[in-house]
Amino acid sequence: MSWKIFTKFFWVTVGVAITALGLDLFLVPNKIAAGGTSGIATILHYIIGTPVGITMLALDVPLYILGIYRLGLGFGLRSLYGSVSLAVLVDLFSLYVPVPTRDPLLASLFGGVMVGLGLGLVFRFRGTTGGTDLAAAILRTYTGINIGQLLFLVDGIVVVAAGLVFHSWELAFYALISIFVFTRVIDMVQEGISYAKAFFIISDHTSIIADRVLTDLGRGATALNGRGLYTGSDREVILTVVNRSEVTRLKEMVYEVDPRAFIIVADVREVLGEGFKEYGGGKDF
């Protein structure tokens, strides 16, 4: 096994463990069925007493069979490791971890953060835990509907079912809060927290500004061909990416050269390449 494959297995396992802790510490004990097979398993746990992890795995089995049939062997096998390990850890941790709060709001928030962090790590390292993301991928082959829309539909059905079964729409609302939180955290883990800024600089003195960016800041810059639709004149647009600490310095530098310059500043979630970080990906495991 190569080092990259081992690293992916390691971080997928860490992500699965964090997800399991989020479920056992916060969501399941407080009857918060935040969508997915974990939400269905939570409902069944309180109706008939079945273990959450085993129920999740049982729900995933027919999805694997159908997934291999519709999506190919590789997709089904890639889902298998994450879902089996999640099922095992959910039931294992439930025997030992304490329940830190019975406040449903705190549980939905902290549970959402932990589940989002865990799933974000799993997805970032090209793993999956099966469940509704596998179901949505399968349904897409039949319906052609966007996977995001299908996930929202499936999770919505689970949340409504929880409200009916637990006779509490408040719990359904808390589940929606948890879903909102963990989807935002998943995005943050995969895309990164905004730590850089992209500058689009429009000026009549682009060559001087570009030279200052290259020499004074030590950053790369790219000249894009543009045309002013109002004036009809061709002009260059400078694109460069800088760290947060360099934002003010770059603004001052531009306006020293051209007080009439037009600047667009945008958040950048991730920058790969010279001066920032290198891509650490590799082949799927």
TrEMBL record:
List the keywords (alphabetical): Cell membrane, Membrane, Transmembrane, Transmembrane helix
Subcellular compartments: Cell membrane
**Its principal location?**
membrane
Residue limits of the DUF2179 domain? 219-273
Q: Tell me the membrane topology, using the record's own terms.
A: Multi-pass membrane protein
InterPro entries named among the record's database cross-references: DUF2179, N-reg_PII/ATP_PRibTrfase_C, UPF0750_membrane, YitT
Gene Ontology CC entries for this record: plasma membrane
> Which residues belong to the signal peptide in this entry?
none
Q: Where are the transmembrane segments?
A: 9-28, 43-67, 79-99, 105-123, 144-165, 171-189
Superkingdom of this protein's organism = Bacteria
Pfam families in the record: DUF2179, YitT_membrane
PANTHER family assigned: UPF0750 MEMBRANE PROTEIN YITT (PTHR33545:SF5), UPF0750 MEMBRANE PROTEIN YITT-RELATED (PTHR33545)
- Tell me what this protein is called: DUF2179 domain-containing protein
Supply the source organism for this entry: Desulfoscipio gibsoniae DSM 7213
